[in-house]
DNA sequence: GACACGTGGAT
DNA sequence: TATCCAAGTGT
């Protein structure tokens, strides 16, 4: 089986999008913030928020010095607001454990709040130029198709890292490009729906294409309905508090017209349990500095 | 390993 | 309109 590296590198040189975190000297903190924002949120929605974030908090210490609620407010409507809280915690950890410098070591990165297998290696590779396999959902789909001949990848697995490692050149700089190129291909060519196979640099060697594009076995779980969900309820509560911040809001004024009052109250309790909301007297607000 | 966790654009 | 999908992580 011929490797994917050479055609990916050649394709990426011409096809890569011009994205902020690919600019020369973007910095490890910028890379880290971008990766947090990109966890399950599309690129086009991230870009403007990323620039505003880095203008307000140019270093981890700057963010760590602000109350966590400010991070939740600045996060705005990017979704999964716990990521804002985790990013704030990671900034505190970086300040306290790493002298304010984003660590380079993968294990040190993995020890930070909100950083898992993907983000840790993305920072080590894209910010610091080290050699590791970086595997996101795009890469998993590219490998599933080009190498395994399947329409969709199976569930995430630690073997994914080994599968990508097998495609990386020994050269450190080239390995980084192959990581980025596999993600980019999955994002703009080898897409989940309507892949552009006629424009794919791997078409000649794609196992899925060679097998006649067999359909996936479709064991994927359907995404839960959002309308009427607890997630929607939490989102509505938090939106109210973001828009009022930094002021606290009387508890009775939190989405008072919500159809299911019990669901609303459960959402508030779960947000408090998650540390996204604080209760003070009969008011709610986004979290301030912890009492010392 | 399954599940919870936001939000908005595309089909 | 309903469903799918998006640079994942923690429990």
From TrEMBL:
InterPro entries: DNA_glycosylase, Endonuclease3_FeS-loop_motif, HhH-GPD_domain, HhH_base_excis_C, HhH_motif, MIG/MutY. The keyword Protein biosynthesis does not apply. It is an enzyme of class 3 (hydrolase). One of its GO terms (molecular function) is metal ion binding. It catalyses: Hydrolyzes free adenine bases from 7,8-dihydro-8-oxoguanine:adenine mismatched double-stranded DNA, leaving an apurinic site. Its EC number is 3.2.2.31. Its cofactor is [4Fe-4S] cluster. GO terms for biological process: base-excision repair; mismatch repair. Keywords: 4Fe-4S, DNA damage, DNA repair, Glycosidase, Hydrolase, Iron, Iron-sulfur, Metal-binding. Residues 37-188 form the HhH-GPD domain. It comes from the Bacteria. Belongs to the Nth/MutY family. This is Adenine DNA glycosylase.
